[in-house]
Design brief:
By secondary structure, the protein is mainly beta. The protein has one domain. The protein contains one helix and twelve strands, in the order ββαββββββββββ. The strands form three sheets. The protein has a five-stranded mixed sheet, with no helix packed on it. Strand 1 and strand 2 form a beta hairpin.
Length: 177
């Protein structure tokens, strides 16, 4: 059985967090042998709110961004559903998402996901990344540990093939700035 390699990227629009667009790109070696990818992507964005019921109990609810007024401090959940509609496993699949300008990264659900703090050049776990900045006087360049505020992209390189007909879900969270 032949395994195919795929790469995908999707972008969820900033505070028009209401809409999303994504695209699949196939590495050039695959582009010659396959005009279309059997992997489809569906993205979703929800605003997460904790509400207190009449009984005093807190409940977490998810809302479509158009169903509530989105304000700074709102928690946002970005979800991508990956489906292999093909007849063969899809190996080497990767999905990359730039952080929307209006949202600050807070976490990613999958422990095997990576982030970038430099626009997608260097990838790794947030705890291992560094950023260069100016010192307090603004005269010298210094290096510091990267934080959630520095994350520019999230990337998933699937560790195993996506079986034919299988569905996978990946997600990350952020806060509206």
């Amino acid at each position: 059985m032949k395994k195919r390699m795929f790469k995908a990227a999707f972008h969820l629009a900033p505070l028009a967090i209401l809409s999303s667009a994504f695209a699949i790109s196939i590495p050039s070696a695959m582009a010659q042998s396959s005009a279309r990818s059997p992997v489809t992507l569906t993205s979703d964005v929800k605003i997460e709110r904790v509400e207190t019921g009449s009984n005093g109990k807190e409940t977490t609810k998810l809302y479509a961004p158009g169903a509530v007024s989105v304000v700074p401090g709102d928690r946002v959940v970005f979800t991508l559903q990956v489906v292999n509609t093909g007849a063969e496993p899809a190996a080497g699949f990767r999905a990359t998402n730039p952080m929307p300008d209006a949202v600050q990264f807070t976490s990613v659900a999958e422990d095997w996901a990576e982030v970038s703090v430099d626009g997608g050049t260097i990838w790794g776990k947030l705890a291992t990344l560094k950023v260069k900045t100016k010192d307090a006087a603004g005269t010298a360049e210094v290096e510091r540990a990267a934080t959630e505020q520095d994350v520019t992209h999230v990337r998933w390189i699937f560790p195993d093939a996506i079986a034919a007909g299988a569905t996978r879900t990946i997600s990350y969270r952020g806060l509206v700035k």
